[in-house]
Amino acid sequence: VQLVESGGGLVQPGGSLRLSCAASGFTFSIYYMDWVRQVPGKGLEWVSGIYSDGGSTSYADSVKGRFTISRDNAKNTLYLQMNSLKPEDTALYYCARSVATGTGRYFGSWGQGSQVIVSS
User: Which of 6, 21, 27, 77 makes an SS bond possible with 95, Cβ 3.0 to 4.6 Å?
Assistant: First the structure.
């Protein structure tokens, strides 16, 4: 399993970025996929998830209405469109593959992360 994020960078507050995650080594089209972020010195925060067919998505309250998750199963790629960015969105953003368990989800595979910095 390999997940490779790209698209991060420095952006001013109110700006936009689109993260991409190129997946390989597994059948991407059958897996639920997630975006998770980590602020330095803080824990991981789940950001968004999308079902295998892209038909259903979920978002953390902190990004709802500003971020949009999507996927292209033909290209084995996951996306996160981030609009109206705020300084508190500054974090290392990870693409992850998760599976459902009896008590929640297990995040078994992670990318290396893409840094997003929101600052004027």
Answer: 21
* Phi, psi of 89, rounded to the nearest 5 degrees: -85, -5
What does the DSSP 8-state code read for residue 40?
T
Query: Mind spelling out the 3-state secondary structure of 73-97?
Result: CCCCEEEEEECCCCHHHCEEEEEEE
Please answer whether residues 80 and 94 qualify as being in contact, where contact means their C-beta atoms are separated by less than 8 angstroms. no
d(CA 67, CA 102): 28
For 87: left if phi > 0, alpha if psi spans -120 to 50, otherwise beta; the answer is: alpha
Categorize the per-residue pLDDT at 94 as very low, low, confident or very high, splitting at 50, 70 and 90: very high
Q: 33, exposed or middle or buried, with CB in 10 Å at 0-12, 13-18, 19+?
A: buried
Note the Cα 32 to chain centre separation in Å: 12
Q: Does the pLDDT at position 56 exceed 90?
A: yes
Query: Are 8 and 89 in contact, with CB atoms under 8 Å apart?
Result: no
Q: How many residues are present in the chain?
A: 120
Distance between CA atoms of 16 and 118, rounded to whole angstroms?
Answer: 10
